[in-house]
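Quick check before the chapter quiz. The format below is the same one you will see on the exam, so make sure you can read both the input and the output lines.
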Amino acid sequence: MKKLQSTLPNMAIVLTLISVLAGGILAFVNGMTKGPIEEIKAKTLADGIKAVLNADDLNVEEPVTLENGAVVYKTDKGVAVQASDPNGFGGTLVVLVGFDESGAIQGYQVLEHAETPGLGAKSSFWFQKGEKGDIIGKNPSSNNLTVSKDGGEVDAITASTITSRAFLRAVNAAYAALSGNTSDAQTGATQQANTNE
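Here is the expected output.
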């Protein structure tokens, strides 16, 4: 068998064939995994709504997506709101927050984050009931849900002030969506200083 000469046209043909083959394999794998990934996301969301509203059995109405990107899930046990903040230390932080009829936080769940493991990733539990940054039972309309470093009422995650700020902005965005104020995710009490950690 004669060896293929290393000419520019031959290299372009081989590179094109490899690219087409790799693209086809990636498209096939994407098609095979897309359905299961969507099912997992839907189950995670359904379980999250139950967790943030502290209810095992609830009826969820059709979700409403607002102009600021927040998604409101009304149920017979309260309202869950999915909101995000793009300014976490590692990128966008997406939270699901459950509110009772008065607007008090019943629970929350971090749905997506790219925060540093062991530091910013602590947002999944740092703000839960009984923890240092406890926000459960607080109402964003009457409580200053910003980090204490910025004059607020919430203790930031140690060595993760940027993540804490992003988390609390997402919680305030969820409350703004709940109360119908989607133009600005911050209440009058949530102005934050522009300082680094």
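If your answer matched, good. DSSP finds three helices and five strands in the chain.
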